[in-house]
Design a protein that fits this description.
A: about 300 residues; 2 domains; six-stranded mixed beta sheet; 10 helices; about 30% strand; elongated; B: about 260 residues; 13 helices; about 0% strand; globular
Chain lengths: ~300, ~260
């Protein structure tokens, strides 16, 4: 049985006059998975998220969440969705607990939900502090606590790691992973930072100029990143000649630092070492390397 | 559902400075009226006050309860129009200024309930301020020992003040709509100032009885005995303005894109 689709967009577009913020977006997010929605600033991530939550009406196409057509003003499905849109925000004159109490009342959650959300985001120390006096990182935690308070089935998070320190990022990553595996929560998260998505997502959609340009499992993305062997040797010209002559390797490029990148025969790395050293060359560096995922992302989105 | 949303709207006011500022602003009015009455009651001392004394004589005030109530009504009406707008701007505009509108609009609650609950909060807030103003006015009048007090006069005058306040509230939804349309504080504040200026212009040109922002001051007797200078349809105009404002605010919250 194929996995249930929890979030679906079919040919969704959003135009602001001549600007195409989102252009014919087709997405399917399966139950229980963490979907990383990756794109550069202005790629259409936040507009997509707003359409998923009914905050913005698509110019064309259809958005479905948990089997229900999402439209502005039709709030029914939102009791099963937790969200964080763009920047963290809260009522500055209210404490963390009072801000969460607003969410509790509007979602009909029990009183205990506040303490649970506070504990989940480690906000105990700040629970009675006014939101206006929180650091940016703790404001982000408060927004995440608000999103999680009513135990939603689906989390739609726009840049959830914003403003968090490295330890906080790791902690939230662990929390989202636990929610997905233990509670079966489906997480749709946007980010412009590939490393963040690559550490967490099961599947990644890369959006650029409002269009989904690549969608793949994380492992497939890793495989898509081109591999090569980095070689630093005393005589690069001689090394290039030796590789061609003795191993039939011709796809070799030079780096700015005077090293070599070998793009074929990667499984014969030991033989490469033997050939070069056997000819009397001084080999100071030899390692298998992958194109940085970031570089792959930049190549796809035209940034490099 | 209204009860739940109303509870959250009331919670949002906790520790808001604007509640105290609005109370302070409104509580100055009976004191100012009392000062005028004192000047009118003591013309000799008023003369020693220079310009203030002269102004009080120009206004032709007599120091009695009827004049004091009339003054309170005018102050509550004009001051109330401004204060009501400021309260409405705060209650509706803060969601955009604080960046919480997107949270509010992605709740599993019909968005019209937020509009209704916020209007109820504005009404309740202003009602409390008006009751406070009346109480303070009675105290100030008693301290000044103004002549001419009678229970029927007090009931009738207090009724007029409350009625003016209620009619003034009917203009709030339009301000609320501008706050949601303009997503913040500045557009509705600008709109309110513009409407007050226009209200003066319409009032001066004789069309005031058809312009909502002129009708309220006229109702409070600022252009002579209130009801007589108004047309029978004047209150209908204010009622229609209220209905249009409510509909526009609900439409804006419910259907318009939120790109804040």
């Amino acid at each position: 049985m194929p996995p249930e689709t929890v979030i679906s967009t079919q040919g969704v577009s959003k135009h602001y006059r001549e600007v195409r913020a989102v252009d014919g977006l087709d997405l399917d997010v399966r139950r229980g998975e963490i979907y990383g929605f990756l794109g550069r600033n202005g790629a259409g991530k936040t507009t997509t998220i707003r359409m998923l939550l009914g905050l913005v009406r698509p110019t064309s196409g259809r958005v479905t969440v948990l089997g229900r057509h999402v439209r502005p003003g039709d709030q029914g499905v939102l009791s099963r969705v937790g969200s964080l849109v763009e920047t963290a925000s809260a009522y500055p004159n209210l404490t963390v607990r009072e801000n969460l109490d607003i969410q509790r009342r509007l979602t009909g959650s029990p009183r205990e939900a506040i303490a649970e959300a506070v504990a989940l985001l480690r906000l105990e120390e700040y629970a009675d502090r006014r939101a206006g006096r929180l650091s940016l990182g703790n404001k982000q935690r408060l927004s995440l606590a608000r999103a999680l308070l009513h135990r939603p089935e689906v989390l739609v998070l726009d840049e959830p790691a914003n403003a968090l320190d490295p330890a906080g990022i790791v902690e939230i990553r662990g929390l989202l992973r636990r929610l997905a595996t233990e509670r079966g929560v489906t997480v749709f998260m946007s980010s412009h930072i590939l490393a963040e998505v690559a550490h967490l997502a099961d599947r990644i959609g890369i959006v650029h100029a409002g269009r989904l340009i690549e969608e793949l499992e994380l492992e497939a993305l890793r495989a898509a990143a081109r591999s090569h062997v980095e070689v630093t040797v005393s005589n690069p010209d001689r090394a290039v000649a030796l590789l061609a002559e003795k191993m039939g390797i011709s796809r070799v490029s030079r780096t700015a630092e005077g090293g070599l990148r070998v793009f074929e025969g990667l499984e014969r790395i030991a033989e490469i070492a033997r050939v070069l050293v056997g000819d009397g060359l001084e080999l100071t560096r030899l390692c298998a390397s992958e194109e940085d995922l970031e570089a792959h992302f930049m190549r796809l989105t035209g940034g490099a | 559902m209204l009860g739940q949303v109303l509870a959250t709207e009331l919670l949002k006011l906790r520790r808001s400075r604007i509640t105290w500022i609005s109370w302070l602003a409104f509580s100055v009015m009976p004191l100012a009226g009392g000062l005028f009455m004192w000047i009118a009651k003591e013309p000799g001392r008023a003369a020693r006050l220079g310009l203030m004394g002269q102004k009080a004589r120009i206004a032709g005030l007599t120091a009695d309860w009827a004049s004091y109530f009339a003054l309170l009504n005018q102050e509550a009406c004009v001051g109330g129009m401004v204060l009501l707008s400021i309260i409405a701007v705060y209650v509706f505009g803060r969601e955009f200024a604080d960046g919480t509108a997107k949270n509010m609009l992605s709740q599993p609650v019909g968005r019209h309930w937020f509009a209704v609950a916020k209007l109820v909060v504005v009404l309740a807030w202003f009602a409390l301020l008006t009751v406070s103003l009346v109480g303070e006015g009675l105290l100030v009048g008693a301290l000044l020992d103004l002549p001419g007090f009678s229970a029927p006069l007090a009931v009738s005058s207090i009724g007029d003040i409350l009625f003016s306040g209620l009619v003034g509230f009917l203009l709030v939804p339009v301000v609320a709509w501008i706050a949601t349309l303009g997503r913040g504080y500045l557009p509705p504040i600008g709109f309110t100032i513009f409407m007050l200026v226009l209200g003066n212009v319409f009032g001066a040109t004789g069309w005031g009885k058809w312009f909502p922002w002129s009708i309220i001051p006229m109702l409070a007797g600022m252009a002579g005995p209130g009801v007589e200078v108004l047309a029978p349809g004047s209150l209908v105009v204010v009622g229609l303005t209220f209905a249009a404002g409510v509909a526009a605010t609900i439409w804006q919250l419910r259907w318009a894109d939120n790109t804040q």
